[in-house]
Batch of 2 targets.
Target 1
Amino acid sequence: MSTGYEREFLLRSKDVDLFRRLRLSRLFELLQEAAITHTEELGMGREKTLDRGLLWVVTMQSAEIARMPEYDEGIILRSWPGETMHVFFPRQYSISTPQGETLVRANALWMLVDQQTRRMVFPDRWGIAIPGEKREDELALPSAPARLPITDERSFPVPFSYVDLNGHMNNTRYFDLMEDCVPAAAAGRRLRIIRTEYTGEARLGDVLALRWGEGEAGRYYLEGSLEKPCFRMAMEYEV
């Protein structure tokens, strides 16, 4: 039996960038919202987690983009959970046209942390379980981003508008940060692959030390840290 989620969207002006393509951060917002909504539909909503002091967080995510959907285009977003791996909840996503053209495939690893201690919790001890499934068209689970030589750096104070209900910079805002640093985005080059790993959290007023660099064949790398690393991203753009 399928445990999947499906929703149709029509992309409006708030969803796209100056090239009229779906903004990268908005893409991951849609994926995040699908995961949250579907988790609630599966009976694991806030009364099982947030109201008990547990937070859902993303630890890794990745996407392969055949074509980014564009302004005024209708899309179908599908999502389904994979089999739980001890403390990790894999989630798969796909975005396609109504005609069946696959535009984006993506996935993420979610986990639960204690709101007070910010430490990982074991879901079975809290009675939290999500049935999973495997489909032939899904991506392999996310892997750690490959590092490239660093050529540029800057600092970034975390503003109020970037902080979510978990009390830290929302994972989707790191994509806005990346596109402000990496020149390929503003040049209009098309993103093909992105991999992200979150190893820490940045809170309101924290000043991230950002470092990035460019490799061959349209590859880029970005990392951010406080006293310890917070995140890493590896991107591949069209050449």
Target 2
Amino acid sequence: MNKIKDVNSLLKKVEEFTKQKELDLSSGEDLSIGIMNLISIEEHLFYTSQKTKDKKYLELLNEVRKMRTELMKEIIKDYEGEVWCISKHLLAASMRVMEVGTKELKKGNKDKAWDLFDKSYKLYSLFWGLNLGVVGTKDIKQEEDNEVKFIDEKSQEKGSSSVFSKIGSLVQKAIDCCKE
């Protein structure tokens, strides 16, 4: 029962946020995937510059970085502290873990791939949880067993699943790239 209440509470927050900000979540999801790829391009340009010792790749890297920064501003409107950087790294980590999962899948290691895809999605969901304003540090509590739990702000009761599970449920329900 608490799980349903927690997810419904999160969905209500998302609905309120999207009404206030007039945010098209499916476009935001597409844009976030594009940003992931721009981060990856930045990494490849860095490594290519170092492998070839050609500084022209650094100039390209800087142009891609400027574009990525502009596009991130479309999604990350309000942030405090290091949420901007955390967001960038969550997207980058999600993309890289997903790529490793894809390589494991190609090798036939389906269980390993599934585990990596699950971790990638959790990181991606945390990105959205932070940037939709539905999860903040006040909503999270670390348990004695080092598991991070979501706390429903109304009941102040500890949820029965991890913060990743709560945010993952939210992202599944709120962000659907197939909605037109």
